[in-house]
Amino acid sequence: MYATRDPASFISTVSLPPHAFDSLLVLFSGWLHSVFVTGVLCFGLDGTFVWGRQNCPGSWNDGEMGRRLQEILADPAKTDVGMKVASDSAFPVSGRCAGRIVIPLKKGDLERHPPACRLGLKS
Questions:
Q1: Residue 3 clears pLDDT 50, i.e. is over it
Q2: Number of domains in the chain
Q3: Residue among 85, 90, 86 nearest 63 (CA)
Q4: Which end of the chain, C or N, has fewer beta carbons within 10 A?
Q5: 41 and 52 in contact (C-beta within 8 Å)?
Q6: Residues 6+ apart with CB under 8 A from 100
């Protein structure tokens, strides 16, 4: 991957129904109203597979699923200066991943901030 001001990759979560449904039913938490095998994938803009975590049965939070990716992004020895990935709002964008994971603004986010800050939020 290369250093860029814009995100050079994006993160996506995939939830698939398991083949062995009965054996995974014990992991059902009720959160998604079903049982899935969840995975997090990170792709480069050219479609290159960059990172992934698969075969996590049960109901997992996207941020928890991508914890290892967060560790990699926070490690300056493993990512170039300015390296960013785009994600949905399920992944943390503060703390050790501040400036490394970027998410689009949700409806109403811009209006909640003082007018003096809005220009910076748009960029």
A1: no
A2: 1
A3: 90
A4: C
A5: yes
A6: 73, 74, 79, 83, 84, 85
C-alpha separations of 5 from 19, 81, 85, 100, 108 in Å: 41, 9, 10, 10, 25
Q: Is the pLDDT of residue 4 over 50?
A: no
Residue 36, domain extent: 9-122
Cα–Cα distance measured from residue 10 to residue 122, given in angstroms and rounded to the nearest whole number: 19
- Residue recorded with tokens 């901030």: 113
Helix (H, G, I), strand (E, B) or coil at 73: helix
| Residue 26 phi, psi (nearest 5) | -65, -20
**Residue 4 domain-assigned?**
no
Element (H, E) at 116: helix 115-122
Quick one: tokens of 91?
A: 């992944």
In a domain, 2, yes or no: no
Residue 102 structure tokens: 């970027």
Assigned domain for 43 exists: yes
Structure tokens at 71: 């560790």
Domain assignment present for residue 105? The answer is yes
